[in-house]
Design a protein that fits this description.
By secondary structure, the protein is of the alpha/beta class. Helices cover 47% and strands 10% of the residues. It has 16 helices and eight strands. The chain has a five-stranded parallel beta sheet. Strand 3 (177-184), helix 6 (192-206) and strand 4 (211-218) form a beta-alpha-beta unit. Helix 12 crosses helix 16 (391-397) and helix 14 (349-356) packs across helix 15 (360-372). The protein is globular. The structure holds adenosine-5'-triphosphate (ATP) and magnesium ion. Residues 16, 55-56, 182, 216 line the site of magnesium ion.
């Protein structure tokens, strides 16, 4: 598709870095070294950061680069209604699934009776019932009925202990197994109550010998746990904030993707535009990939467009959003609020209500509506709400350069 630029079609894939893409990883060198050292001994490590910055990738990179340790291919994306039995069942399933995976470096472990027994039990349960997917990038389970509850809890613990011992004998490390759990955040996946309950429930499992844990969550999870689940807060020995990659590192990451595909293209996006997208995405690499992909798809078939510029981007997102914005104009208050947020990204509620001349309660209702419709994003800091336009509307509709809204620069 992107032949004219000589870049691969999957240049904007947004899967986390995993075992097969370790060579695409850039940056975080100090944290990598530090955490890799910590994980040599039994530890519980928390990686926290904003969405899409690369928490899962960093965890995957560290555990898969560590020689002489056992870590399953897949991370475990926790779900709100899990209990500890489900959690243990899924951890066991992930471990035996790795041992049975074709191409695993841990084939030798198949000779153990216990491993075969666990594998049988779990295939008996039909992994599909546990929601364990074969898709290659995740293990998940719905919030409903749990098949693991058929297995006695002591048996689950016993299996986990035995698996730890067996893998310990094979690899002779203080904590030979490194598990990674994902999705632990209060903003998107969990309510605060669910998160508190799950962490209280799985605490003992996190303490089982021979297994280290990398827990990925949103920024603030460490503080949340200290405050609300101190018994878990106390067993986390390291909290690391995953900062966004720098602009230069993002460019390097794109170049590595082109090189890995054996292609020689130059990245077809004007540096100024890329920098603008980087700045307004708060360093969320996933958001950047998503925006760039939409632009590449829009312009690959336009023979005259060799480099995608700010004007192209603005035009595209203006066209894509125009009809939606028109519908806002039917409401007397939605449109002015949207316009104010687009032109004042990061505005707080008080100033917003001043700017549009409406009461705060009205503005509060409308911002919720606009958020639900995907026009704006609300960020909470302490008790104050800050409002940002969705990045696509920001590119297409903001009056940067003094251009009025509705007036694309083309
Ligand atoms: N250090 C890195 N080097 C190269 N690419 C990276 C790096 N970190 C992240 N990426 C890429 O950025 C995208 C997002 O990364 P990832 O899924 O790890 O973020 P995340 O913080 O775990 O996101 P979420 O908050 O949704 O869980 C992926 O496509 C990944 O390949
Ligand atoms: Mg993640």
């Amino acid at each position: 598709m992107f032949e004219k630029w000589n870049i691969p079609d999957d240049i904007c894939d947004n899967y986390p870095i995993g075992l097969n893409s370790l060579d695409l990883f850039v940056g975080h060198s100090e944290q990598t070294k530090f955490l890799s050292g910590i994980l040599t001994n039994k530890s519980v490590v928390l990686l926290e950061g904003e969405i899409g910055v690369g928490k899962t990738s960093l965890g995957n990179y560290i555990r898969h680069s560590k020689k002489g340790f056992f870590s399953p291919l897949l991370e475990i994306p926790c779900k709100p209604k899990w209990d500890n039995d489900t959690f243990m069942g899924i951890v066991l399933a992930a471990i035996v699934k790795e041992i049975m995976r074709s191409g695993t470096p841990h084939k030798k472990l198949r000779k153990h009776e216990t491993i075969r027994e666990i594998n049988e039990k779990f295939s008996d349960l039909k992994l599909a019932n546990l929601g364990i997917t074969g898709a290659g990038f995740g293990i998940s389970k719905g919030s409903g009925f749990s098949r693991t509850s058929f297995i006695n809890q002591t048996i689950l613990i016993d299996y986990l202990l035995k698996v730890g011992e067996i893998i310990g004998e094979q690899y002779r490390q203080p904590a030979p197994i490194i598990m990674q759990v994902n999705n632990l955040d209060t903003r998107y996946s969990f309510s605060e109550d669910d998160l508190t309950r799950l962490f209280n429930d799985i605490r003992d499992t996190l303490q089982i010998p021979n297994i280290s844990w990398i827990i990925c969550g949103d920024s603030g999870l460490g503080n949340f746990l200290k405050k609300n689940v101190p018994r878990v807060g106390q067993i986390i020995n390291t909290i690391v904030t995953v900062e966004p990659l720098s602009f230069e590192e993002i460019i390097t990451a794109f170049r590595l993707r082109i090189k890995k595909a054996g292609m020689k293209g130059e990245f077809p996006v004007e540096p100024g535009l890329l920098k603008y997208i980087y700045d307004i995405s708060n360093g969320s690499f996933r958001e950047i990939l998503n925006i760039i992909y939409q632009l590449l798809v829009r312009y690959y078939n336009e023979p005259l467009v060799t480099t995608i510029t700010g004007e192209h981007a603005r035009f595209f997102f203006y066209e894509a959003g125009r009809r939606h914005v028109e519908t806002l104009k039917k409401s007397k208050i939605q449109y002015p609020v949207f316009e104010a947020v687009v032109n004042h990204p990061g505005i707080n509620q008080k100033n917003l209500s001043k700017l549009v001349g409406k009461q705060q309660s009205n503005v509060s209702r409308v911002t919720k509506e606009l958020e639900a419709m995907g026009f704006i994003i609300v960020k909470k800091e302490g008790r104050v709400n800050y409002y940002y336009p969705d990045i696509k509307y920001r590119i297409g509709f903001s009056n940067i350069n003094g251009n009025k809204m509705n007036d694309p620069v083309v």
